[in-house]
Specification:
The chain has about 425 residues and is of the alpha/beta class. The chain folds into two domains: about 230 residues, Rossmann fold; about 150 residues, Glycogen Phosphorylase B (Rossmann fold, 3-Layer(aba) Sandwich), CATH 3.40.50.2000. The strands form three sheets. A six-stranded parallel beta sheet has the order 9-8-7-10-11-12, with helices on both faces. It has a four-stranded parallel beta sheet with strand order 3-4-5-6, sandwiched between helices. Strands 1-2 form a two-stranded parallel ribbon. Helix 6 links the parallel strand 3 and strand 4. The longest helix has 17 residues. About 5% of the residues have low confidence.
């Protein structure tokens, strides 16, 4: 199995999903699982899963290339300023804020095939190098199934399949149509489609994503399977917010990008605050629209009732949910959306967009169109103002979300493996 990130070193839901799926699969006695990522930091936790970082592969550059391709050769790269999924802080850390001389010196001094596992300026080169290492590893051991998560690892999965001649499963957690709002990057689209075309089975995280894969990538519907994500019960005890007369918290948690609809959250906040004053809106996350949202809050004159919490992970996420009275996910196009399930598990009523995959599996949530800010504002007003409604949503939501777990997800994936291997 190939993935780009693994908790606690994550930038979004992809790593969380990889951990949940591997944990679920590892519970089956007849599955031995090796998970390969670009970089292993050593603080990852896994149960009965062998974790390998491509940065740990003990082979020099030319040895890898010679064994993978049969002949030594040199690789030249072309610099590009394309930086997907990067917020201003990550942009600064990526090196493009430094002088050309400093960047050149860093590259000259860097060890061969060094992997960051990030989404910076060298992403495309890193994806290529990762696929070379994947082919090298595939030639060293034998596996029955190859499973690649998202476009970043599709080339790695394809390289492993070429060496092993075994079935390839590609897992689509999101498409570039979701991330870009329709302004698709041709290089990314090509890598997505190539992986899906080569795959023996394509797993999508929702019917919403399945339809997009079939329609926009022209993939045979017979090999596209929907397997919904789950949620991991956590050890941080969640407590419902006080029903007293204190400040109520309405939370947005996710990447602050076009896909997640953060500006709709700001507009909703303005409408609610025109009717209620004892409410605080919190936007937790980072992304390329952060400064735009800060400016929008200032223009709306609600800065005293609106907070930006920054990027949260691990215990910080659960602490944020503990303090929340309502969770809102106004995503424009959301392949799935794990965070509403986490909120429900923490006894928080949720409002989600109908344009999300998670809306296919939950019943006890308010579902609205992402653009319908009036409906969202009315829902927030009703949940906060009607304790009985909130209590009902919390009780039913917790009961429901306990059934939406990674064990069920893993069982469906295992069943798919068996189907593929039986042909």
């Amino acid at each position: 199995m190939f993935g780009w990130e693994f908790p606690p070193n994550i930038s979004g839901g992809l790593g969380t999903a990889c951990q949940g799926i591997t944990k679920g699969l590892s519970s089956f006695n007849d599955i031995g699982l090796t998970f390969v990522m670009p970089r292993r930091y050593g603080n990852e936790t896994s149960e009965n899963v062998r974790l390998i970082g491509a940065n740990e592969v003990e082979a020099i550059r030319n040895k890898i290339r010679q064994e993978a391709y049969g002949t030594p050769f040199e690789c030249y790269s072309v610099e590009s300023a394309m930086i997907p999924y990067v917020d201003p802080d990550c942009f600064y850390l990526s090196g493009w804020s430094q002088t050309e001389k400093e960047v050149r010196q860093q590259k000259e001094n860097a060890p061969p095939f060094e992997f960051t596992g990030k989404y910076g300026t060298g992403l495309m080169e890193e994806i290529h190098n990762f696929s070379v290492v994947a082919g090298y590893l595939a030639g060293k051991e034998n596996y029955d199934i190859i499973h690649a998560h998202d476009w970043l690892t599709f080339p790695a999965g394809m390289a492993a399949k070429k060496i092993l001649h075994k079935p390839l499963v590609v897992h689509v957690h999101a498409t570039d149509f979701d991330r870009s709002g329709g302004k698709v990057n041709p290089r990314v689209y090509h890598m997505e489609k190539a992986g899906m075309d080569e795959a023996d089975a394509v797993v999508t995280v929702s019917d919403h994503t399945r339809e997009m894969v079939i329609r926009n990538y022209q993939i045979d519907p017979a090999k596209v399977y929907t397997v919904h994500n789950g949620v991991e019960p956590v050890g941080y005890p969640a407590a419902p917010s006080s029903s007293g007369g204190g400040e109520r918290i309405v939370t947005f948690l996710g990447r602050i990008t076009l896909q997640k609809g953060p500006l709709y959250f700001v507009e909703v906040a303005q409408k609610v605050l025109a009717r209620m004053k004892n409410v605080r809106f919190v936007m937790a996350g980072s992304g390329d629209m952060l400064e735009t949202c800060v400016a929008a809050v200032a223009r709306a004159g609600i800065a005293d009732r609106f907070s930006f919490a920054g990027f949260l992970k691990g215990a910080e996420v659960w602490q944020m949910f503990r303090q929340s009275d309502v969770y809102v996910m106004p995503s424009v196009s959301e392949p799935f959306g794990i965070s509403p399930l986490e909120a429900m598990f923490c006894k928080v009523p949720v409002i989600i967009s109908k344009q999300s995959g998670v809306s296919e599996v939950v019943r006890h949530a308010v579902k609205v169109d992402f653009w319908d800010i009036d409906a969202m504002a009315d829902a927030i007003y009703s949940i906060i103002g009607r304790p009985g409604l909130k209590k009902m949503m919390v009780g039913s939501g917790v009961h429901e979300v306990k059934k939406i777990n990674w064990s069920n997800t893993a069982f469906k994936i295992k069943t798919l493996y068996e189907k593929i291997l039986s042909h």
